## 1
Amino acid sequence: MDADASGDGTRERERSGGGASTAAGVFADGGRPEWYRDAVVYSLDVKTFRDSDGDGWGDVRGVIDRLDYLDDLGVDCLWLRPFYPSPLRDNGYDVADYRDVDDRLGSLDDFDALVDELDERGMRLITDLVLNHTSIDHEWFQRAREDPESEYHDYYLWTSHVEEAYHTENIFPEFEDGVWSYDETAGKHYFHQFYWHQPDLNVANPAVQEELFSIAEFWLDRGVDGFRIDAAHPMILPKGHDAHRLEDPQGLFRELKRRVRAVNDEAVLLAEADDEPDRLDFYFADGEGFDALFNFVGNSHVTYGIGVEDVWPLYRMFEVLPEPDPDGHAWWANFLRNHDEWNLLKLPHEALEHAREEFRQGGDGRDSWIFGRGHRLRLADLYDGDHDRIAMAHSLLLSLPGTPIVNSGDEIGMHADLDLPERQAVRTPMRWDGSEPNAGFSEADPGDLVIPVDGTGWPGVYQADVASQRGVEGSLFERVADAVRARRDSPAVSRGEFSIVHTDPTEVWAHRFDREGRALLCVHNFSGEPREVVVGFDVDPADAERVLGDADYRVADGGVTASLDGCGYLWLRGERR
Ligand code: GLC
């Protein structure tokens, strides 16, 4: 594709290679871009990160202004949540136009400027692509509902006989009774697995598929390095009146990958596919499908295990998931919390029930439990604002096989605001400086803010900010930044051979990576109390090097004795004997 042909300012970033348009070229051995396996991703929402022009909305220029902050944190890839024109009935996951920037958030020129800035800093950029549904405000839906003869009508799924149609549970069960809503203009019901205002696209329609591919190409031409594919699992579920399924879902993933790689041979596809563990391999399509999947199994198990101070959930996670294999095609994007509810469905039933009550907060209409499956809480709420535990959790996240994703605000321990509805509770604006109006997020009148800044946190609970932590030794921010640096300095995590190292106390988790004769050992104490552990470590004592953590340790006789503080952690490496 000729990126400059449009003459509208789109342009291609300089690439090594590119233009491989044949299937063989795209999938040839070594064709897998490795950068994302070594990357540390930071996930942010433009509209709540930083408002540069004082209108109360975070904007793309605001992100540019704060890139130094992200450099300090050490992350090298941004994932921007949807910034497209949207009525924002689902925080932007209801897209009204796929090829523009919402004007409250900036312009395409601003987006290009961000791409340039990121390029200069050697940072990558991933954007969110919502291909399962549009907003009802999207022009396709407007035309579809007005004219049943229009080609757009078949972009969606309709029925005139809703009683006889396929019914299934809505993904937002608390808010929606089912998957059909009546449209007065069309005089028919349309199918939606999410909110009523998010009609599912008929992804089996080749014309829809072509639209989706060309949207991806549009953003690749503007210089993005890949996409987070929203709702990849619902995309391939049965849809519409007859519960129609895609004949060859892997064929759709493959074609998406082929089209994407033809524009940028390093572009990656990261899928939100929250499917059953034994179905996950399917999404990789033997290396021809998605490059990585969000690790929902890992998220529920790791975050829960740390919260209950027991490592059994980690053992279970590694039993349940496909084996980590640095040379294989399966790859995880790991996270502790994301912008949605903390989804617990992948925990065994008893643990889910336990987590529902153990971590539940609020009450009286402020209940944290949502959708019957999770908590609308941030990491700091789950761990009672304990910075030692949050720091240790990040150290573990950054040492696990897979690509770590840091959720904006968690690196400073921001709390949720349960006074806000639904998942807005975990989406309050970034708190830059608590001593400034709107905590430094915006100069606007507080009443004009896109989402209120959470000034108080929970009654009596400390609400974090950047100013009190950045550059302050021992602060949560600096400890997370140290862990990010440790990860970037340890390619063994993404390329080495992973193994679990058994330890005695059930609160201490240890694992290691072996690569080219060297070992990297990572030990994490989930207990709030000190623990001493002895684990095998076949490294010459003189050669053992501390990578991260301040625990005392002694290497001798083929093992290491580590004295970990409560929530302490230690990464050690060295040449194997
Ligand atoms: C994904 C997003 C979520 C959104 C939903 C519908 O699950 O993470 O925020 O509401 O898709 O697009």
## 2
Amino acid sequence: MVALKQSASKVVACDANGSPFAEDALKGLNATPKSIPPKYFYDDRGCALFESITEQPEYYLTRSEVGILHDNADDIAKLFKPASTLVEFGSGSSRKTRILLAAASHITSYIPVDICGAMLEQEAAGLRKEFPHLTVSPVTADFSAPFDLPGDTHLGRAGFFPGSTIGNFEPHEAAAFLRHVARVLGRGAVLVVGVDLVKDTQILNAAYNDAAGVTEAFNINLLVRMNRELAADFKLESFEHHAFYNRERQRVEMHLASSKRQKVRVAGDTIDFRAGETIHTENSYKYSVDSFIALARGTGWQPLANWTDPQRFFCVQALTYQAG
Ligand code: AVJ
């Protein structure tokens, strides 16, 4: 059992509407190979465990990105037009956004989009106090599906998609997502996106196999969640956390491996596992600076600038959309 630090208790209830979980889980568990979409990691405990992952010494992603944003906040701020609206896709705790908002007082409107409505309202209240000039208009929505922007936001539109969350998509899905962002923000928009970079295998493997076992607990929590919400009977001790860099496909894969042949009940269905068979729970794609630019260009976005940390572990890319 991993003990969570105080900061994690800030995380408020977050549930992405009930029954699609049963449907998606059964679809994935009855397929070959077995898989479950990574968005189901994020129940209350999953959100808290992820916050804790970002504090682990091996998990360089958050530290690298926050460092890049701090060091280059003024340059990034210059890319936003006067009286800009900033739309954040999957805003969570808005921690990284605060860095940009503090440097860019000409962002006058902020629209955090997240499926977690409770956390959105809590964060919005805090942001309004910290940035009195800022209009904060949260939107509770799945950021990867179409949604309407509230209010009059025609002046300058900017998007923010930090965390390398884009790495959870297959590359063709990441391209579709960038087209979707272009549709939401429109012509002339600027997008700031965080992208984790290809690097030494040991560093990547360590980041997803932290010594404290938090990432393992995060992965196993998916089984805990199915036991609770889908009347499943996964025996937690008979599944192992596997995470490794797949160099050919330039992605870290996370799996839950069954240590033996067994049957598990899930939402009224029986799922058979062979010994060693896995549930593929996540891909986290890694890009080079140039491979990400190539992907973005293919969707109509043009590179404006990019920034990396001194170790070149992580990259923040600024793009603009002039087409459409
Ligand atoms: C939130 C998707 C960026 O892929 O690194 C952390 C999630 N998974 N440890 C990532 C995650 C395992 C994270 N993202």
